[in-house]
Amino acid sequence: MGSGKAIIFSAPSGSGKTTIVRHLLEHFPNLGFSISASTRDRRGRTEEHGKDYYFLTPEEFKQKIDEDAFIEWEEVYEGNFYGTLKEEIQRLWDSGQHVIFDVDVKGGLNLKKYFGEQALAIFVKVPSLEILEERLKDRGTESEESLSRRLFKAKFETSFENKFDVIIVNDNKEQSFLEAEKLVGDFLKN
Q: pLDDT: is 78 or 6 the higher one?
């Protein structure tokens, strides 16, 4: 693969990592968003193939596994696979951009291991699980069962926060934006 830097944002669902990543993409034109592959259904009518995710059937996803097309992949929730395609990273590096990832915690750790010193791995967390529960409920996309599953997973994922290079506590959005800008700016200068 070509070369460039990798900035990895990981967090339990609902912690605000996607909001921070979108902010950084607006402020750093030399960053390109890594579009993940997934077998999950699209949310609403707004998600687009090739923009939000590469939406694959389970059969297509398994074929790509067999072809060794992924840097990392996993079954995040039963029947829902997510992964990072090697060709996606190469596409961004070939365009002269550094890559920014918005991935779950296990994926983030796998990417950090893969990219080594080329990567900055940032864990985003909320001050408490109660606040996380409020955020997930405010989304209006979770059933009671999926909410419970996400909170259980968040408790587990938080136990890995110290394996990341930096932790951002996302208590104040504007402050988190400034902290993320400084971290990314400093990393890209080196």
A: 6
